Fold these 4 entries.
Entry 1:
Amino acid sequence: MSARTTKPYEIVERALALSRADGCVVIADEQSTANLRWAGNSLTTNGVTRGRTLTVIATVDGVEGTASGVVSRSAVTVDELEPLVRAAEAAARGSGPAEDAQPLVTGVAESPEFTEAPAETSSAVFADFAPALGEAFARARAGGRELYGFANHELVSSYLGTSTGLRLRHDQPNGTLELNAKSPDRTRSAWAGRSTRDFKDVDPAALDAELAVRLGWAERRLELPAGRYETLLPPTAVADLLIYQLWSASGRDAAEGRTVFSKPGGGTRAGERLTGLPLNLRSNPNEPGLESAPFVIAHSSGGDRSVFDNGLPLAPTDWVREGELNRLTTSRHSAALSGLPVAPAIDNLILDGGGDRSLEEMVSATGRGLLLTCLWYIREVDPATLLLTGLTRDGVYLVENGEVVGEVNNFRFNESPVDLLGRAVEAGRTEKTLPREWGDWFTRAAMPALRVPDFNMSSVSRGV
């Protein structure tokens, strides 16, 4: 019997039945993807893929504690199932006690759709989008622009079963659209991106019109030196910075004095005000349009993520509440070590509590400053302050007296998102956005534009 003819829940049940370990967690991920790619105003490729990955986590009790072993393989057939389970058990017996060992989760109600077939995407997801994209190609061609980019839609059905009786299932759609417009001589470039669940809420014509305006701004080129400038960060740039902040918000690391969230003299900065603006940085698995898994799905342990927490229900969490640091990420194990509440990471991020002005309205209210398109190649410089460095890309524009007057050179920046929140003087209207840098790993975000009076452009970059 092949991997495709065996239902995912049957694979989970068989693996659990084969287990001889003291505890067992099985995760079956059914994945399907559909994509389109284009260049020079013409579609170049399209395709559909499907696959299955099975992860078996075995736990073995011993005198010194509980050990765990994790083995993942793709396209597993029924005949290959027992060797996979035995390999996980052998890995557990061959390792020492797991530092993050906890009792496996119990008492979570079974997902009603656990025994149903996995959800799948197909090229049909682009039924309305593809014709609209073709029309955008025609308008771009007539306007002297070349469009490049790709659209990708992924649907993952995750089935999670445990020896303690959990039977959970989550379907996660994930769509991304990235569109570049370039001048024929390739000296001007503009970018726009969108995150979507089903491609019904993305409009290629609107994106092309937005990029046409930006290419028009770039017809006038100005040179500016490095320095600190009043800067408008669009939602995509804010998302890239704050996603990295969330990834760095380990409760255990903070309690051990190793991060920007560590309190001098010991403890964490929980309860400390980070910004004078009444901002909320939060995650919610049931956030409309940004829905994510409502329970922990952990294929491996590391940091504040633990395989022992698989199936643990997730609740709306305020990381920053009314400008104050409220939560740091923890597993059950790291929460016990640090004395912090249990707060596992959730796969979306929202910043709200600011104003209701659009980015365009914020531009109109700017005397002199810079308007960014997006950030790129973000890297950590100093974990103690969460100082990051990176580059601007695809358009930095000079604003004077409420109007964009031209494009300036790109820059390298050096900023800490934590410090940046403290210096921000305005937050605009929150809207769904696609992070440019982290879009391959984290797509469900909603952010406002931020006005920072002294964003540090540390040096000039000659990239487009």
Entry 2:
Amino acid sequence: MERRRVSLTTLGCKLNATETSSLAEDFRRYGWDVVPFGSDADVVVVNTCTVTANADAECRNAVRRGRRHAPQSKVIVTGCSAQLRPESLASIDGVVAVVGTRNKLTIADHIESYVRRETPLIDVEEITADDFRGAVSSPDDGRTRTHLKIQDGCDYSCSFCTIPDARGPARAMPFEDVLKTLQDLDGHTEEVVLTGINLGEYRSGTHRFVDVVRGINELRPSYRVRLSSIEPNTLTDDIIDCITSSRTFCPHLHIPLQSGSASVLRRMRRRYTPELYERRILDVVSRRADVCIGIDVIVGFPGETEAEFAETMKFLEQLPWSYLHVFTYSERPNTAALQGEPVPADVRRLRMTRLRDLSARRYEEWSNRCIGQRRSAIVEAFDETAQAWPATTDNYIRVYLTTDVLRGKRIDVEIGPLVDGYRSARPVGEAGPLSSSLELRVLS
């Protein structure tokens, strides 16, 4: 009998991508062929995002695009948009099921009942604190890193965010299962990225996120470990100490800020002040001078004045960081932020441009200071445009190698200057013994 084919696509965050990869592996276990999105397939799965208004539009476009390439396919929509707006998605031609967050990772288990339906099924249920299902990205999804989901949901009430409604309350993988999974991954990957909606709020019984970090250090795995993102109010002194002194954790932290203005942070209902944020950044950098720090910033939040935006610019200019992820505020239904005075779209775009220009300058300056350093890097697939092999260092510098090296391999590289817009590097041999030096061979 001819094997059936499924294609999957992901919108949004790395956690979504991890879950899509895990879902693809489930389909393989049931005997399905997983084919690239845009190929002819019997079933198309679209894992959606709802962080911005544009994400919702992208969701509908992805459904239509998958259907266009496979007109006879059955389309299943899942993820955050599916949880919040199921009826709208169920009305799209070709959709046979809209599956909410709670049952997302059981789609392959129920696929037979989904594809036999004559009318669309809306399988969306309330999410409870007990509804946790872990996910590990599959080596067959083309990634050079393994993403491990250990936390889901959020109990915060940020005034601009719908994630608590889409993902449910904070919940986590049992602590013993986290350590067991990490042990099982040893020898099968070069890097594990810990992911979650609010990673620092990991709670399993009496265990907290610092216990996960300590447990990983005690395991001493052969791979390196990276955090996807962590809120500044959950980045405690103990966590900072464990990560910055570790030979396992990458010297790279992504710490959302959203605004450098205290008044805007209050309207956003964020759980920290600019002063606390600054202390966290300075503490990290004082312990690891080679650390890469990434920051999320939202521009154009309702009521954001020129003076408040200037506070953000000034705040960022005085802090040591490496790159920004800049987002334009996007109106989301049923959020408290909608009550504020809208910032004109052209003002939002101008502020975004100014911050992105600042980010580009800062990243180039920071990576230039790393020229001559030897870093551990994982090689990725050949880049036809650059005509080189990209690799990502432990401290998150993307470099390009002209020497043929094995994809997914971890090697030591010496960082070079920019060449035609690409950060050059050369291999300096296989990854060797760990060293305590922070100037040359840093922590792998």
Entry 3:
Amino acid sequence: MHRKTAVLLVQLGTPEAPTADALRPYLEEFLSDQRVVDLPRWKWWPILHGVILRKRPARSAQLYAAIWGEDGLSPLMRTTRDQTDGLRQRLHASDPELIVTFAMRYGAPSIPDVLAELHDKGVERLLVVPLFPQYAGATNASVVDAIYHGLAARRYIPTVRMCDPFFDHPGYIRALAARVREASLRNAHWEDERSMLLMSFHGIPERHATEGDPYGDHCRKTARLLAKELELKEGAWKLVFQSRFGKEPWLTPATDTTLTKLPGQGVTRITILCPGFVADCLETLEEIAISGKETFMEAGGESFEYLPCLNDHEAWMHGLESIVRTELSGWIPSSQ
């Protein structure tokens, strides 16, 4: 008997518009998640509601406006839809009845709303794919929380599988390498002594790593595998961490600090990619491609090339299909 199966891709989230009114509820939901900010509520609540949610929405709205699409969608929303559509087309070759959809951890479409839709469609088996290559409590674990919280009140709960982090999956590494090789074809001299490939990952507090979060180790493994795949010599690449928030120490070296220092060390041409993100978003397009470039060039840089995230690149769609097919083993036919 055929049992209805669904694949649910989960991204972090996006506001519905680049406005302060849209940013306020989005930021409140995001920054209220104790997986994201794990300070005691008595300490964090006055900061969040008394300071951050009063000032940050307007400031963040300006940043989002700089990257927002003319189609009225954020880059993250547009790309996640494209990835979902592309994956659905590939998987339907094996199981035309397979449901492939997506949700956002914060914002819309929300995980509870999508779970309700899948319930109404009679889904009995659910594969959840957090689109975060490297495991972190603030992302992957938060998705697990939301999935089971959304199912907790239901009488019937489908069989649930959570996709493994894919930080070292060959298909993911090959897709990243394809992005870099495309840049190499455009710029034949990017590997000379004045040039460097920067791999910028989102950071986490050092305390989280000390408490057992494997995120930093996963990032370093991804970077090593990518450097090996590209046959990069020592000194031709560097791993850095971006998006620091708050006052406590975060993983280092920091992206912004590194961009400031490199020209003085003789590295004046950089190519930079963000392997921790599979879809372009505020942290890649504004923080790196716009602000990061300004920081580097003002420090004396000569050339700055930002490489887009994997998005719906053919190599990544092939890799994502491979990851998902492995996780669906036994649920749908393994070959087309």
Entry 4:
Amino acid sequence: MVTVQRDFTGNCLLSIEYATENSAHIDNFYCPGVNLWRDVFTQNQLDILIGREVGEKFLLEDEYQLCPYDPTLRKHLMHRNWAPPKGLVPRPEPRQGRWYPKGYLTNVAGVFPQTTEPMRLVDVNDEWITADLNHPLAGRDLRIYLQIVEMSPGRKERGERCSDWISEASENGPGMQLFPEEGEIDFAESGAMERLSQSDDTYFYKQPRLVDHVDAQAREHLYQFCSSIIAKEMRVLDLMSSVQSHLPPCRKLTGLGMNEAELQANPSLTDYLVHDLNLQPQLPYHESSYDAVCCHLSFEYLLYPSIVLAECARVLKENGVLLISFSNRWFPEKVTKIWQMLHDFERLGYVMKHVSEYYTDIRTFSYRNWPRPYNDPHFFKVQTSDPLYIVTGINRKG
């Protein structure tokens, strides 16, 4: 068995865990080419690392804080300080609880038009904009886990590059899904549910698309995650289903989708129904019929997400599981406007807000920065795998 030494290099998986009173979150970040002798590790972290076995997962930091929360970074500004880059169509309007690049502000010390770090607008009224420029995870206690995927002896140069993996894994995203401690999040964009193509969805989905919607690595993450939730004896409803369900074998798997040829080609389904949730968001199933409801890689197309999730709660048994997944790929003709205006992690918050109306024990998961498989048709355009984001909740009946 290979044990890690100071001069080893290899690949690792970094997991950042944090929680609020009503939710829990795990962000998984793949770290390629880790150099123990060059990258940023504290002596205490190195002491924990050295001697570990390849494949082992262990706690690297407990109650770790990226940075303290700084009240002075909470800025009360006039509306004239709101200055998104010219040429953005539509022009972003400041909305309470939402995240934007800091570069959207002008005449703020330390902020430049090129500054892309996120800020949250915690209050927006007719006179003022209050912007919180703190890191989304500032002041929060984090648990940092590390898993050694593979390691080999010998120092490998990377052109003097030195990585701080915890900082890289936590920048520009994690924490943006959390609800603000005060006020609500305003997702009511003008025309939020507009789409590029307003034609009947039946015509758009009439042609079968027997294709993969994310790459093989992201599909493997989704399948393995679902396998940890879905048991063989469960009755499962696969919403907006297609040729793949990304689920392990179960007692009953009902597919509800838009194209019959795609549903027929899905080998996992025990039965299916062609049904347009944007035309009729009510589900044609009895109350408490299912142990789990899944909606994979399709939530961004829903025009009535709250109604659909209420229907999911109706057909779920008490303590039944809701599982929603998405990536950053979609059909541009049918994705909603609001979805396109949100950061990936802010989309987690958007889904969470809808889920929180009917479900408890809300959890989010992300998988980012894995290498894209070499045989993927998009490998020469994008070398990293499609990111995967997941929200789960438990049905609260009564």
